[in-house]
Amino acid sequence: MTGLKYRAAFLALAEREDQSLVPFYQELLGQAPAQLIPGKYAEFELPGLRLGIFKPKTTHQPEFIHPSSGSMSLCLEVDDLEAAIAHLTALGCPPPGEPIATSHGREIYAYDPAGNRLILHQA
């Protein structure tokens, strides 16, 4: 089987009009973007993943307007789930529920300012 040849993979999120995602992820991840073009693009370097946040061109903005959330989740494995919950809460994005036990540990669901789902997991 011949697959697609690629060098790297990254996740790109469309920025909202209020420009809230870059500061949210900067505070959540505790780092400044590795690349920043103010008002257009930011990229965070995470272990094994690059997270890009972009401002869609005006002609493409309708593609990113959804009546409900999508099926994408950004999953982050954390060392201390309670500390991560407190951090999200301090950022104004408290998880709507309690941590749940899963086959791979404990996890909590939360949402960034644009409504993208975050899964914080502790093994």
Characterise the protein shown here.
The structure is a single chain. With 123 residues, the protein is of the alpha/beta class. It folds into 2 domains: 8-65, Roll (2,3-Dihydroxybiphenyl 1,2-Dioxygenase, domain 1), CATH 3.10.180; 69-123, 2,3-Dihydroxybiphenyl 1,2-Dioxygenase, domain 1 (Roll). It has 2 helices and 8 strands. It has helices at residues 21-29, 81-90; strands spanning 10-14, 35-37, 41-46, 49-54, 73-77, 100-102, 105-111, 117-122. The strands form 2 sheets. Strands 1-4-3-2 form a 4-stranded mixed β-sheet, with helices on one face. A 4-stranded mixed β-sheet has the order 5-8-7-6, covered by helices on one side. 13% of the residues are buried.
Give the number of DSSP strands: 8
Q: Could you describe the largest sheet, including whether it forms a barrel?
A: 4 strands, mixed
Strand content: 25-35%
Specify the CATH architecture of the largest domain: Roll
Biggest sheet strand line-up: 1-4-3-2
- What number of structural domains do the residues give? 2
CATH topology of the largest domain: 2,3-Dihydroxybiphenyl 1,2-Dioxygenase, domain 1
User: Low-confidence segments, ≥5 residues, pLDDT <50?
Assistant: none
Tell me the overall shape: globular
Which helices and strands occur, and which strands form pairs?
Layout: E1 10-14, H1 21-29, E2 35-37, E3 41-46, E4 49-54, E5 73-77, H2 81-90, E6 100-102, E7 105-111, E8 117-122
Parallel strand pairs: 1-4, 5-8
Antiparallel strand pairs: 2-3, 3-4, 6-7, 7-8
What's the quick description here?
With 123 residues, the protein is of the alpha/beta class. It contains two helices and eight strands; from the N terminus they run βαββββαβββ.
